[in-house]
Fold this sequence. Notes:
The structure holds 2 protein chains of 2 kinds. Chain A has 8 helices and 10 strands. Chain A is an alpha/beta fold. Chain A has a domain at 1-79 and 187-248: 3-Layer(aba) Sandwich (Rossmann fold). By secondary structure, chain B is mainly α.
Amino acid sequence: xxxxxxxxxxxxxxxxxxxxxxxxxxxxxxxxxxxxxxxxSVLLKHIIGLLKPDAGQLFVSGEDICQLNGRRLNDIRLxxxxxxxxxxxxxxxxxxENVAFPLREKTRLGKKEIKERVDxxxxxxxxxxxxAKYPAELxxxxxxxxxxxxxxxxxxxIVLFDEPTTGLDPIMKKxxxxxxxxxxxxxGFTAVVVSHDIPDVFEISDDVAMMYGxxxxxxxxxxxxxxxxxxxVKQFLKGEVTGPISVS
Amino acid sequence: xxxxxxxxxxxxNFIGKLGQRLVFFLEALYWGLRPPFRLFEVxxxxxxxxxxxxxxxxxxxxxxxMVLGMQGFYTLKKFGSEGLLGAAVAxxxxxxxxxxxxxxxxxxxxxxxxxxxxGIMRITEQLDAMDTMALSxxxxxxxxxxxASLVAVPLLTAIFDIVGIVGGYVVGxxxxxxxxxAYTGSMETSVAWKDVYSGxxxxxxxxxxxxxICCFEGFYADTYSGHxxxxxxxxxxxxxxxxxVNILIWDYFVTSxxx
Lengths: 248, 259
């Protein structure tokens, strides 16, 4: 579904992606893990075309999105949904308007159909009777749920999750993970979950890839990943301060 | 060698940034003039930029007109021409002070808010979220603000002109004893349509300049050193300073052409 081939990205003098390659299979949940600041979110932004690599290719269903601009890129983006780390809900709109926004602007659905779909999507993520509230009035967990509803409202083939559980309490973390898992199994989209929420993220993942030093250093099922002999993976899984991953 | 390299790099950097700004403005105009028009959003912005700036515009205009009336009276008195006070106040305000002061006031009140609002949307990834939904932030966020400025600032300038002239009248006629008929009569004979036209054209160009610079700085708030709140603060300050300075510089060139 998504094939990333040898992509490189520099920000000023810092090289964040150093020839990273990765294959993300269709209809499965792939978790991308790695230490903070290793470039996971940068990778996600490349997948949806928010950033362009300095070199390399990124294929979505066989099409290299690095070569696309304007309308063709937007056509590809319509196949995506994305849940941002801070949910990125539009401050000036209430919850209903936030979720309805892409439907209003990108489809010809009538008011009644839009209302039905938005209400259904919000109900699926456990948000009921709060349509008129604004993002500033919501807790972190609620924002993520509304963000998820917005990401799914266009029934995308691929959904990207950028650290969906960061800043949440352990119960809400489990609830969001469960929500991602259940929704993916129900709808069948391809999910890419960027997280450093170890080991919880393994419970919902079909595949795990670890990013370190600007490349993918390990990829496999959660079981294979957890039994890896790679010292970097071992240190990351155990959360040890000393080892090949420098804390400074 | 180092100096040549430095000059070359700086020049290329400057031209690159200028080009980026120009593309930004043209893109905003393209989205703003392309149907379907987001009239509700434009009206909302006209309310924010125009209606909410009314108080500060009326306050500034009335005192500017009053000061002009007083200064003008004592200057003209030296030449025995107090009767020309109306013409002096009206021409100064319509041709110069109205457009410039209105634009500077709107920059301080609304331009800074435009830059801050867009900057916050940038750092909280709201603009990225719109991009991922294939919805152009230029269309939904930037274009309505620029279009609204193009409507609101000339209207505010017109209000400034009227209030300023009335302020001059109050001081000149009621406090300093100039004849009311002389004040309005001299104004009527000396103010031509060309003066009003040049004032309105100036204010439209100032509106474009102010909204363009403020929206641009907010849109790229994440490129400033010290991302986050510091980046937005930097972007807002830069937006206000650059807009104000550019309005004054642009005013000189427009005046040279239109005089």
